Amino acid sequence: MATPPNILVTGGAGFIGSHVVRRFVTKYPELRIVNLDALTYAGNLENLRDIEDAPNYAFVKADICDAKAVEQVFQEQAIDAVIHLAAESHVDRSISDPMAFVNTNVIGTVTLLNAARGAWKDGDAGHLFYHVSTDEVYGSLHDDSFFLETTPYDPQSPYSASKASSDHFVRAYGNTYGLPFVISNCSNNYGSHQFPEKLIPLMIHNIQQRKPLPVYGKGENVRDWLWVEDHAAAIDVVFHKGRNGETYNVGGHNEWRNIDLVQLLCKVMDRKLGRSEGESAKLITYVTDRAGHDLRYAIDAGKIERELGWRPSITFEEGLDRTVDWYLQNAEWLEHVTSGAYRDYYQAQYGQR
Ligand code: NAD
Ligand code: TYD
């Protein structure tokens, strides 16, 4: 596609969105990046402090379910393309409050699609609706196979069902109205600025505080972990080179059983905190399993590697090392996001520990 000047990034104040916004604002000064975010518990403008004064960056506080507000942004900011990341993103929250996921992930996505359709009346010239999705739409693996772009959808949690639904709507708008789109489905991300309700930052935080490390079930569930900046690089390449109507799977070739990953984190943290080896691992506590807990996710990223030349740039050891260092050096960020509402969530999810 021709290079579009005004890019709407939704959810840019969140974990992955903030890495995408930073990458685009700094790497492409010729593009204008409009970050639309409702600033839910997961959205934090502190994540973007270093680029907030850049001349090619603007922030709009709005809810993607608010059709009027979204249409206004498309008009006033002359939006040419969308990178849609805004979502409710945590499986445990989707189990306790599925409607929030239906609202933001399904209705919010359709609201954005309608706004794009209304604004882009001149066919596909220079326009693109890029939907950032998850590998969880493919369901749970119980053998040693991998998710391909052709794997049938089989979502198992309210979160993955809402993301699968939003993927279907994006494809339906492409098929029915000719809306130009791409979708990528990525495996679990880790890195700086991730809200500490997700496994890796939650464990780093608890190890540091000498709090119990809640491993669900037997800890045998497997996830494929990708460094968030490598995901942002994949989004960059799909945005610029992805073919209209295509889906690209993104993953790290990096599968870990939860218990092995938590043990590794304990080891890394023992070293960094000057604790004796094995000290932090004593905090591991097996807790009641997540309802409907998906056993294994694993991505075959061959298509994006072959067709677009993307590959993860660093090893897991390197990424984990950088991530732990970031959390240890940014205690203030962690303190801000773990106050108030987060403490209430933690209490409800894990009880008094
Ligand atoms: P996140 O929860 O850290 O951030 C979500 C952002 O969306 C926040 O800034 C929040 O304020 C904003 N938001 C939520 N509801 C909104 C609404 N109604 N209107 C406007 N903004 C709203 O999420 P994340 O982990 O950065 O994930 C970003 C996207 O990537 C999501 O679509 C998610 O499904 C997808 N994804 C995440 C992972 C992962 O491992 N985190 C993996 C693959 C795909
Ligand atoms: P999570 O980071 O919530 O990502 P997802 O569920 O989207 O894969 O969880 C990663 C894995 O870690 C998942 O198998 C659930 C498990 N887990 C725990 O064992 N304990 C925890 O406290 C959390 C948050 C997750």
Could you explain the architecture of this structure?
By secondary structure, the protein is of the alpha/beta class. The protein is built from 12 helices and 12 strands. Helix content is 42%, strand content 16%. A 7-stranded parallel beta sheet has the order 3-2-1-4-5-6-10, with helices on both faces. β1, α1 (15-27) and β2 (32-37) form a beta-alpha-beta unit. α1 packs across α7, α4 (98-119) runs parallel beside α5 (158-177) and α6 (199-209) packs across α8 (258-273).
Topology of this protein?
Layout: E1 6-10, H1 15-27, E2 32-37, E3 57-61, H2 67-76, E4 81-84, H3 91-96, H4 98-119, E5 128-134, H5 158-177, E6 181-186, E7 188-190, H6 199-209, E8 213-216, E9 222-227, H7 228-241, E10 247-250, E11 255-257, H8 258-273, E12 284-287, H9 302-308, H10 316-329, H11 331-337, H12 341-350
Parallel strand pairs: 1-2, 1-4, 2-3, 4-5, 5-6, 6-10, 7-9, 8-12
Antiparallel strand pairs: 9-11
Q: How do you describe this structure in short?
A:
This protein has 353 residues and is α/β, with parallel strands linked by helices.
Which radius of gyration do the C-alpha atoms yield? 20 Å
Could you say which overall geometry the principal axes of the C-alpha atoms support?
globular
Distance between the termini: 53 Å
The CATH superfamily of one domain appears as NAD(P)-binding Rossmann-like Domain
Helical segment tally?
12
How would you classify the helix and strand content by structural class?
alpha/beta
In the CATH hierarchy, what is the architecture of one domain at level 2? Answer: 3-Layer(aba) Sandwich
N to C succession of SSEs = EHEEHEHHEHEEHEEHEEHEHHHH
| Average pLDDT metric | 95
Give the bound compounds.
Answer: nicotinamide-adenine-dinucleotide, thymidine-5'-diphosphate
**Total DSSP E strands:** 12
Roughly what fraction of the amino acids lie in strands? 15-25%
Spans with pLDDT under 50 lasting ≥5 residues? none
Main sheet attributes: strand count, strand direction, barrel closure: 7 strands, parallel
Strand order of the largest sheet: 3-2-1-4-5-6-10
Q: What is the CATH T-level topology of one domain?
A: Rossmann fold
Helix content: 40-55%
Can you tell me the CATH class of one domain? Alpha Beta
